[in-house]
Recover the amino acids of this structure.
């Protein structure tokens, strides 16, 4: 099946290319789990989002 008919596969492939960015974002969130608020780890989230978008275009 093509990625178009299996969007979850396309998502999984794209996410697999961004493990470093995902790890940094997760570490940022966990540092103060009780104090999570909007835009707490915005820089890390933007890097993760950009990585995912770039990887999904290539897939």
């Amino acid at each position: 099946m093509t990625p178009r008919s299996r969007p979850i596969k396309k998502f999984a492939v794209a996410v697999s290319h961004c493990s470093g960015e995902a790890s940094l974002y997760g570490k940022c969130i966990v540092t103060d789990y009780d104090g999570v608020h909007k835009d707490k780890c915005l820089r890390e989230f933007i890097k993760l989002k950009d990585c995912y978008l770039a990887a999904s275009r290539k897939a």
In short: The CA atoms of residues 24 and 44 lie 7 Å apart. The chain has one domain: 7-58. Residues 7-58 form one domain.
